[in-house]
């Protein structure tokens, strides 16, 4: 079977499609015939800059995938050949707080990823996904969806009537929008594209703000909330947004800090003055994944997939990610 | 102005309509021209059995009401004549855990209630209600709605995808159903009336169980949840239901224990065996009320009112409560 | 190597010492040379009444043990031969809420226990213990200590200045007393023995109540707390204590419900009236165990061991448990 | 009776001692004969720079004081003349999360403070203090002690065995050290003075770091914790410390952000990478104050008072605060 591999630090062009025999699953492991893998910005960044991430070549990219189990090792309970499963971003995060040990079990980073026809994963590192979802749908869950769920449910404790600010229309924000609809919250979402904002509105956003036309978007958010600010901001922005997010969040509110694009320097004084909670978020645990799946199943939620690529065309998917014109997820069939 | 008063322990017939001058509001107080008062089972029970509740005659009944402020005392900030407000069940519960001091500030019990044309309440003992609600609507919020909100949001921490069991179709259960719809949860509701179950289904219940036809309704709930049990049970049942509720709730799940009808003896062993949390619930705080109002406003939620009575016909409302044929709230205009 | 085995439902006398070869550890497993095993009431109950617990004969008893790793299977990270480890009561409870799957991984119940010279356990089913502890010390941690920690830290959220009620001087209560000393809380403890109460006092208990001399011990606890009641009750009592514990706990307080001796019927009405939380507790997770170990290490805490028995004399340890005259733990050397 | 008043923006020298008649307490108010007032850095900053804080002259400075009630207004329950009480920093924070309304009720800022012989406060804006404390002792509680309690108990959820980093030996840090001793935690504390570190060690600190001699004190803290980092950092430092505090805190740990000295710019990326929680802290609620008082009473805790000044010498106290050579609190008798 074949796998895509990062063979050098040459960027997307250094990805090679290679034959790879993963052997049989050991005790407590499962072999999965992957059927789809979704791309996150983090995967592109890893390919373009593998050095500081400590990758050893060749390395299989991507954390997110879905497929069907073809073989289970000894001692595996509750899973059997034929089961449709998604990968868990962290192979070792059952539940509870994150830890360095958990962080060392990330797929497509510390460990080989899933952009491959066959992979071997820990039994606790895969999870069955809702019946109404296709492999392509499920491939979008492990990183973007779970990060959004963690931000709005675990970190934000969002309840009906809360107002939540989403920055941009990337994968995490779109999933957050869908979850917040389920949870009865009101969403304010920003983008530089009126077209994307129109789509977000159609998907249920309460208010939209074009941050190009309204550079003081934090003041606009305050105005929309009667001067009070939002209960939660899901901060996935690039450099320079966090200071404004702090401004746009209410006293004693929460900011979920996500994404490797976090950057720039900020003045932390208003965090103190407003009794804010700034919470770093790094995907989520398998228990959160199970909770999320129950919600997705109960609501028949479908992800927004921008484009699906053939396995051989994986490089095109990364180039589409670079071009940043998508609304929704980019998925590669395996 | 007039007020209904409990003048002896003679039950509903001992209610007398009397003239009463409440005077001017003191520092930190407001005078409210009540416009509607909703009846809870607890109000009927208080009238029928005032002795053990320590009432001194005459006592004005009812915790729940809504009206408009006609005068504010010195030192009142943020409220002014003309404001439409609902009463807070506990005059002194701002936020945080309950306490004996808070319990001593209950309207229509420790303190005079609101079935009157004019009342004086603490500024912190009233709360503005959503614009889309009438006085009759808002009069149903202080006890039934807030108890339901406390049970599903504060105690249950309900999130999208959770499954919640509601016992019967009383005021708390119907509000809980409406809130759970907002929160994205699935509701299983019980009743002895197929007609009431049909209405609950129409209002969004996921599954219904007629406990007369299915006396082992706990087993039915287990079946409906694939053997797992519900995440939360809102236990407002009469004698004998709690043991079955314990059976119907999942391992590490929660039971919110509500209502003066709780009765009968139970075997607590399964609470331990299933790592359950059984949480007594006694209405809720003003902060929870504010949260609830934001949710109600965001969703334009309207209460289910079964019947509205003229002020002079208040006794008929209590008799309707006794007859127990209603679906939704009984409200008296003031 | 040898192991004690329950070979029939004949009680303690049906325990047989047998040769057993556990083989080599598989992937993700470790082989441990057990050095000590502590006995809990639950272990005695299992031996005396194995039927309803679904044991298949022969079954090795006991959940609690400590020893040194002699061999690690493939894929084990962070553990090596020579490491001193204790067993985890639940082999599969990493963190988060309990579940039926976790409950199916109990040692000395669903799975073979540790009263043996050699056992094979999952790598995630053992945990290194503090350096200052002997094997005998560490053997007392998995069930009694962790249950106590879960009750006072996770469930009770005990903070300095809280008052906590402990029922009796069994293993859980004595550990709870030691932890509560660390946490700065005040302990009220009950017993029928003045001698045991004197020892508890010496160990730092704030107040003691002899429940034989003071059958209305709940009223005594109320008096000791100025009528307010305790913040937390660790309920490990036999039939009939829970109703009094409910009485002795403050409004909005917590009762941790522990132990297979929970019994009798109770009237749940006061749980509602006092806004109590009754929380079933079933040992605890590996993450809690790690937290507890850090606390034990920081404070150099030593368990109270009543008596240590030779491996061949294990039956005597169970008979001592039956006699119930001990203060502290009963430990068998392996 | 007399009060100190800020009469212009001339700094400490613009403080004037003036006669002031506060009149009688209104409904729900109490008149307190202040006996002592403690100074916080915030009080000095307010005096030196009153403009941006929106003070109107003349304004009585200081949030912290203790005295005895001399008169109670109508409607006051539970307080009577002769009661010894401390002031609450926020007159309107009963419990729950902070809010703009609560922030508008700060003594010595939005409202007149307590550096006076007589003041009128809300009944809910004072709190009885432990019997073993003098007025001077109790005057140190409202701001510094409660902030420290909020940081280590409410925000940090500190449990026995946790390791906590304290920056410097100011009022908040010294109280935090005392509370952490009670809670069974281990303290690492920094200072530029070996003498102050020696005193902190004597008071129970586990490890000390002289940040002048060890400018990379974050690396030293990592070393002391075996590379893991501390569970909680109480960040009260000046410009430039927060980035190092982030470095010194463990994955999924917490930083309590306190104090108007917070300054400088930080790179927030590591907050995300380490799943940190950065929580702004602004004193605390009356309910927290009650919890803290119970802990202080149970442990007979005494504050560290550096120096006590006569009422007429209040300016000297502010000058001592400016000189920054103290270890412990500066208190003015009233």
Rg result of chain A: 20 Å
Number of strands of chain A: 15
Q: Please tell me what the overall shape of chain A is.
A: globular
Largest sheet of chain A: 7 strands, mixed
- Would you tell me the structural class of the helices and strands of chain A? alpha/beta
CATH A-level architecture of the largest domain in chain A = Alpha-Beta Complex
What order do the helices and strands of chain A follow? EEEHEEHEEHHEHEHEHEHEHEHEHE
Give a structural overview.
4 copies of one chain form a homotetramer. Chain A is an alpha/beta fold. Chain A folds into 2 domains: about 1-140 and about 305-334, Medium-chain alcohol dehydrogenases, catalytic domain (Quinone Oxidoreductase, Chain A, domain 1, Alpha-Beta Complex), CATH 3.90.180.10; about 145-280, Rossmann fold, CATH 3.40.50.720. The first copy, chain A, is built from 11 helices and 15 strands. Chain A has helices spanning about 40-50, 100-105, 135-140, 140-155, 170-185, 195-200, 215-225, 240-250, 270-275, 285-300, 315-325, and strands at about 1-5, 15-20, 30-40, 65-70, 85, 120, 125-130, 165, 185-190, 205-210, 230-235, 250-255, 275-280, 305-310, 330-334. In chain A, the strands form 3 sheets. In chain A, strands 3, 4, 5, 6, 7, 14 and 15 form a 7-stranded mixed β-sheet that branches. Chain A has a 6-stranded parallel β-sheet with strand order 10-9-8-11-12-13, sandwiched between helices. Chain A has a two-stranded antiparallel sheet with strand order 1-2. In chain A, helix 5 links the parallel strand 8 and strand 9. At the A-D interface, strand 12, helix 9 and strand 13 of A face strand 12, helix 9 and strand 13 of D. Strand 13 (about 275-280) of chain B pairs antiparallel with strand 13 (about 275-280) of chain C.
